[in-house]
Design a protein that fits this description.
Structural class: alpha+beta
Strand content: 25-35%
Distance between the termini: 71 Å
Number of strands: 10
Strand order of the largest sheet: 1-5-6-3-2-4
Number of domains: 2
Largest sheet: 6 strands, antiparallel
Radius of gyration: 36 Å
Length: about 325
C-alpha cells in the first residue's frame, strides 16, 4: 500500500506545484514515468445504450421463442433439418445499422398491426442464395454460394414466401403479449428503400444464424424501440404469475372446470348421535333435530357452506330462494 502524505507534506507539494518546481505533465519524455495505452470510453453513450435495452425487458425470451418456432417451420417447408439459433441483440441507431448492412441480400419490411413503425427482416446475401438453391431442390451438401450481385426480383419473390412464414411465427411468439397480424409490405435489396424510422431513431436488432446441412447464413429482426415501447409493461410481466394464468393451459383448465358437476345440498338441520343408537333405528322412530323453521337453510357446495336460502315451491316443485352468501369472516 502506498504511504499516505501527512498535512505538512501535502502543503509542501501544493506549494511546489504553484511555484512550478513540481511538474504536473505526465506526457513528457521522462523514461522513469510509466504509462499505459488506454482506449477512450464514452460513459454517456454506454449508459444511453443500456437504458434503451432495459426499456424493452424480456425481448430475448420472445426472440428465442421465435427462433424455436421458425426453425420448425423451415424444417417442414424445406424438408431438411434446419437449426436456428439467436446469436445476440444489439442496440444502436437506425442509420448506423443500415450502414453496417453492406452484405444484406434481401430486406423484408414488416407491418405488425396494431403496432406502429413495423420492423425489418434482413437476410444476408449468402443466406439468400443458399435458401433459394435449397428451395429449388439443391442438396444441402453443396458449398455456400458467394455471388457478387444482389438478388433479382424473381429471387426476392421466392424469398418472400419464407418471410411470410416468419411473420406467422413472430405473431405466435408474441401472442402472450399482444395479438399481432404481421405481414410483408415489400421485399427490397436496397437498404435505402426500407426506411421505417428516422435515421437517429433507436432500434433493437436480434441476430440469428440458420444452418441447413453445410449451408449457413445469418439474418436479423430489427425493431424500432418506438414499435416495442407500447408493450414494455406487458413484456415486463411476461414471466409473472399474472401472465402465466393467461396462458392457453389456464384457459383450457378453466373451461373444463366450468363443465364439472358438483353436489348442492339444502341443509335444514343436523343431529349428532352415537353409533349404538343409530344401530337401533326402526321404522316409525322420530328424531328431534336442531332446526328453527324460521331460520334460513344452509346451502352446501361439496359439503362447504356457501349460501343461505329459504324453502318454497315453484310450479308444484320444491325450490329454494338464495338470500345471502356465507362470509367466512362472520
Amino acid at each position: 500500500m502506498e504511504p499516505i502524505l501527512n498535512k505538512d507534506q501535502i502543503a509542501e507539494l501544493l506549494e511546489g506545484i504553484k511555484s512550478g518546481k513540481v511538474s504536473t505533465d505526465l506526457m513528457g519524455d521522462d523514461p522513469s514515468v510509466d504509462s499505459a495505452n488506454v482506449t477512450p470510453l464514452n460513459l454517456f453513450k454506454m449508459a444511453h445504450s443500456s437504458d434503451k435495452q432495459q426499456r424493452i425487458p424480456n425481448l430475448d425470451i420472445i426472440l428465442d421463442n421465435f427462433a424455436s418456432n421458425f426453425g420448425i417451420t423451415l424444417t417442414n417447408q424445406l424438408q431438411r433439418t434446419v437449426t436456428l439459433t439467436r446469436t445476440g441483440i444489439d442496440s444502436l441507431e437506425f442509420q448506423e445499422y443500415l450502414l453496417s448492412q453492406k452484405e444484406a441480400g434481401a430486406i423484408g419490411v414488416l407491418n405488425m398491426e396494431p403496432l406502429k413503425n413495423g420492423a425489418l427482416m434482413v437476410l444476408n446475401s449468402e443466406l439468400c442464395f443458399s435458401l433459394i438453391e435449397v428451395m429449388l431442390g439443391a442438396a444441402t451438401e453443396m458449398s455456400p454460394l458467394h455471388l457478387d450481385r444482389k438478388p433479382t426480383t424473381i429471387e426476392l419473390n421466392v424469398l418472400k414466401s419464407i418471410m411470410l412464414k416468419a411473420c406467422e411465427d413472430i405473431d405466435k411468439s408474441m401472442e402472450q403479449v399482444v395479438e399481432l397480424e404481421s405481414s410483408i409490405v415489400k421485399v427490397e435489396s436496397n437498404s435505402r428503400l426500407v426506411s421505417i424510422a428516422e435515421p437517429d431513431a433507436d432500434i433493437l436488432a436480434g441476430h440469428f444464424q440458420i444452418k441447413v446441412g453445410n449451408l449457413t447464413g445469418s439474418f436479423d429482426l430489427v425493431f424500432p424501440v418506438a414499435t416495442l415501447d407500447p408493450l414494455r409493461e406487458e413484456l415486463r410481466d411476461l414471466l409473472t404469475v399474472k401472465t402465466v394464468r393467461q396462458s392457453g393451459w389456464y384457459d383450457i383448465l378453466i373451461e373444463e372446470i366450468n363443465k364439472m358437476s358438483t353436489n348442492v345440498i339444502a341443509l335444514s338441520g343436523t343431529i349428532t348421535l352415537p353409533v349404538h343408537k343409530v344401530m337401533k333405528f326402526k321404522e316409525g322412530d322420530i328424531l328431534n333435530i336442531d332446526y328453527d323453521p324460521n331460520s334460513p337453510l344452509k346451502i352446501l357446495i361439496e359439503e362447504n357452506l356457501k349460501f343461505f336460502a329459504i324453502p318454497g315451491t315453484i310450479s308444484g316443485m320444491k325450490a329454494i330462494h338464495l338470500t345471502g352468501v356465507y362470509d367466512q369472516g362472520e
